[in-house]
Amino acid sequence: MWNAIFGSATPVNDAANEVTFTINGKTYKAGNGLPEDTSLNTFIRDVASLKGTKFMCAEGGCGACIVSATVEHPVSKERETKAVNSCLVPVFSCHGWEITTIEGIGNRMKGYHQTQAQLAKFNGTQCGYCSPGMVMNMYNLLEGGHAPTMAQIENSFGGNLCRCTGYRPILDAFKALASDATPELKASCVDIEEVYKICKKTGERCSGKCSIPADLPKSVALSTGGANWRKVNSLAELRDALVNVGETPYKLVAGNTAEGVYKSEGIKEYIDVKGVPELRSIDKKPGAITLGGNVTLTEAMNFFASVSENEFKYVNQLATHIDWIANVPVRNAGTLAGNLSIKHAHHEFPSDIFTTFETVGAKLNIMDAVGDVKTVTLADYLVLDMNRKFILSIELSKKGENHRFRSFKITPRAQNAHAYVNAGFCFEFEDTKAWKVVGQPRIVFGGIAPSFTHASNIESYLTGKNLLDSAAISGAFAELGRQLNPDRVLPDATAEYRKNLAQALFYKFLLGLDPSKVSDSQKSGGTNLERPLSTGKQDFDTDKSLYPLNEPIPKIEALAQCSGEAEFVNDIPSVPGEVHAAFVLSTQATGTIANIDPTEALAMPGVVGFFKHTDMVHYNTFTPPDFGYADQEEIFCSGNVKYAGQALGLVVAETRELALKAADKVKVEYKNSTITKPVISMSEVLQNAGSRIHPDDKEEENEDETASHRTKAAKIIKGDFEIPKQYHLTMENQSCLVLPKEDDSFDVFSTTQWIDLGQAVVARCLDIKASKVNMSVRRLGGGYGAKITRPSQLAGACAVASQKLNRAVRMVMPMTANMELAGKRFGLRNEYEVGVDEKGKIEYLQAKFFQDSGCNLNDSPLRSTREHFNNCYDSTKFKVESQQIRTDTASNTWCRAPGTTEGVAFIEEIMERIAGETKLDPLAVRLANLHNNDNPIAEMIAELKRISDFDARRAKVNEFNAANRWKKRGMSLVPMQYPFDFWGNHPAIVSIYQSDGSVAISHGGIEMGQGMNTKVAQVAAHILGVPLDSISVKPSNTLTSANAIVTGGSLGSEAVSYATMQCCKELLKRLQPIKDKMPNASWLELIKNAHGKQIDLVATYMFTPKDNVKRYNIWGAAIAEVEVDILTGEKQILRVDLLEDAGQSMSPMVDIGQIEGAFVMGMGYWLTEELIHDPTTGRLLNTRTWNYKVPGAKDIPADFRVTFRKNAKNPDGVLQSKATGEPPLNLSIVVLFAVSDALRSARKDAAGDDKYHQLKPPATAEHIFLAGLADPKDFKL
């Protein structure tokens, strides 16, 4: 068999020709019927048909795909359970594994696991798409048999993204299960009876796992047709496999986590090396530590942390550093050799293992195919030919007591991010008083340039010198500055930042070496930011007489979401004959399509078709003018390219993976693309003016009046403020499923917030009546505006393919294509002139807004930007002009709190600038400019200051800044007035069933995590007087909710709740005559009697702005306190206090979740999320979780307090409530201003004055560092 597959002359008789494993106790086998690169995630979902496990990024960066794997350790022979990213694990490497998915730990049939119930109880779900991954990550933390600490739990979710909740309720839910949980958290734990199954095999309690048969062959050799897989279990088998691969492209597979960074192609031989004992062993002897090459990062970290001998004490720092690498599931699978192999193949990769191990002088033992072993340094390893060789082991030597080793890693966010720069410093000293350097030190940097490892010049320079001598320090920085010459490859940070950061890290090492020799003001520079364990507090009132309305309950779908039973579009089961689609996207932003050649793609077995604009014979736009769109955007480009990422065609194939591969094979020829350079930014347009600028609105200016105001102004200030775009990052990517049905109709399942638009686009593309298009939406995995306009493009394209092929067509976009195809939050620029009096009160303000609309002028929120620019201030002297700008980028679209966020940001930046230019307190300037038209902001600010202890904390911040040169803290307070309008038509239908009196509701809104269905159910139960569990909310569809307007703008929950309320009132009205006759009848008796009298138990209602509601204001204010490391640019949010007027909340837990989630999404906008385009092609470069960083679990405020304004019923809203989904995002700019406040102190220390400096958003570590003016000339002890 080996001879047939691998050409070996050495037979291996006990090898299996397929891999065997279990999923939730059921045995599965995988053999030659699957492609060689099939992931475990694909197998779980498409073969085992278990849809609870999700996927999004396909690179181990989001956590949606986490499952549990129990695997035999090749050394101890014990079976160990760990969390893994199923999207990265090849199914052919799962031989002998016991895999547990979300379905395997609990569900509605057998009962829920405590982690599932706990997350649901704490309202730790919103859209629910991330919830199974969150649960499985926590499940694995508990599988060790002992409860982790709260700190361990909080530290373990760096690889799980959530865009909805803001993480706080998730962390609280799981920390309640910790060994050191507070009494309050423990008291809130779910009281759940453990539910056991009886094992069919043993008749005893089932553990949820089934042991792999003892006689299962350990080795595997199989062929998929496209490649060969071999699992080896000894060094002899491994060497034999390497001998026999010949010149065939091969890959050694252990953790396979490198696929999350660099995708491998063309591999024909896969060799699974996880089972080789020698590669997984750890040996500690008196003089050395030896780790097998395949020791996982988690194993290495745990081992290093346990070492206590002084001669090896330095490895504790290695443990600390490894904890900064990737995330728990990646570290569980990824190996030391694997991490180093990435560096070997891609020298630009900032490998933390390479940097730290090279710093401490580790040696690699390299074995070749014949068994010879060569020992090399890590630096030499980079240039070593590794063909048919592997890292056998890594050796670490002992170090004397006068050795000092420290390492650093500076990243875009707190966890799960690769380094801007990482560094290691290892010195031996003659003694620890004079700190004279003995021998040549080791100074290593990563992230500088592919060819740069050691700062060799400074290593030589410092040999023999007293390291803390001022002259030595000065000379060292001069030498280091000369040697560091970083490259610049987009989308990486600038060379200026990385060079200066590298020098600052050396300075941090010096400061931390001997604090007794460092002045008090400088000492803080020697330590890293230390984040406390996060906490949260929520303060709101409820009225029990209204329950279940106003009752703080979890979402009604929470348990279904936490068990993976909640169905999303791509969870809908496949149907016979179904095919999969993938877009072909343009790779250039300008030019004309000369030719599209799909020949190579169509020649691939399993590819069934290719469609382009010529196939759209009836209709080729997804932005019809009768739906209010200014420009008609094409479904498929018909010739003139508008932006890089534009859809050119659609490949259809038997599997999703094949469709994606085939789409890459379609050849596209462009003409004229080199003539016109793409215009990517607004500044390029404004420099040249021309036809790309489109006036939007202008208030007439009275020049005499303006001149008069200028005369009165004590100070005139001119400025500008530009704010960036933001990607929505919904956990569920854009998806669509179209099924042809009888009578030429089509069922369409689309991830859309606007089913009416989708129905119309599909009908027109197919040239059929709208009544033939049946759209249904159960839920979305996040929306935020991304799924208003854009999903109809997918629906139209898939529908045409479905009609032509007469087959069901499914399309699930990968994150990379999703980011390229769809527009983002609009970028905006404000240019203004403002005159103020001595107190900072505005005498006049002229502002001109420029909006980056992308390549089309659709979805513009400029009207909201202008309105919310007024905020809570006297705007009678404001004059605003706005214009749209076309750029060669994707047409931008709605994004959570569209326009309102930018409008508030513009005026609040002006308030900050006024304060900075006039040397006034920013809060005093804001208070001086408040309007007095029924404005409660002054009162709310006073209350917020009181409950947050603002004044005392502000004084402590000032004291801290005066005492510390390199750590700074800042505070800011931002108020908000959010005018809220009702618009559109929102239908609902309520049905009462005579058989048992239960109630079903369908409405025109789209549930996407905002708790709409929960509020609707609470309203119905309250009005009808029935138990909440008798209410069932059905999917939204185009039959019961025909012509429904888009769900967005925080309006949906309010509007459909009103429509539901009216339906219920109508039903009660119909029932009243019977109730009058049967006053003591039960609900069921009442319904039975009504049914017998042919009373209609179904009611419909459509909410419109004509109903009994009025425009109202939502008021709020937020305080943020931050800490910044001036030497790195890192920051942490120490505390946020947020006070919001939520009226009388219909569902307080839901509204708290909305507020926290919106605020944290806004934090990402202002602090971490940056979009970078290729200036030559116009293509978006950071389209992955690898390089687009939204906030993670340890980026949220360490102390997050949300308070609802007391006694604030809203007579103009629905049932006294107010909307909450978007307004808090407007307040999130407070974190940017708090960081600016911290930098003001740093800039004063550096430059001698504290004049106003505008911090460019997003306030990434790079922008903060450069604004902080850290300069090596100031690096003194």
UniProtKB/TrEMBL annotation:
The reaction(s) catalysed by this protein are: indole-3-acetaldehyde + O2 + H2O = (indol-3-yl)acetate + H2O2 + H(+)
Segments forming domain 2Fe-2S ferredoxin-type? 17-105
Supply the alphabetized keyword list: 2Fe-2S, FAD, Flavoprotein, Iron, Iron-sulfur, Metal-binding, Molybdenum, NAD, Oxidoreductase, Peroxisome
Q: Where is this region: Disordered?
A: 518-541, 688-708
Complex formation: Homodimer.
Indicate yes or no for the key word NAD.
yes
In Swiss-Prot or TrEMBL terms, this protein is called Indole-3-acetaldehyde oxidase
- Compartment annotation: Peroxisome
- Catalytic residues? E1222 (proton acceptor)
Alphabetized InterPro entries for the sequence: 2Fe-2S-bd, 2Fe-2S-bd_dom_sf, 2Fe-2S_ferredoxin-like_sf, 2Fe-2S_ferredoxin-type, 2Fe2S_fd_BS, Ald_Oxase/Xan_DH_a/b, Ald_Oxase/Xan_DH_a/b_sf, Ald_Oxase/xanthine_DH-like
Q: Which cofactor does it need?
A: [2Fe-2S] cluster; Mo-molybdopterin; FAD
Per the entry, the cofactor note is: Binds 1 Mo-molybdopterin (Mo-MPT) cofactor per subunit.
Predominantly, its location class is other
Enumerate the PANTHER family for this protein.
Answer: ALDEHYDE OXIDASE 1-RELATED (PTHR11908:SF132), XANTHINE DEHYDROGENASE (PTHR11908)
Q: Where is the composition biased (Polar residues)?
A: 518-527
Can you give the residue ranges of the FAD-binding PCMH-type domain?
Answer: 222-401
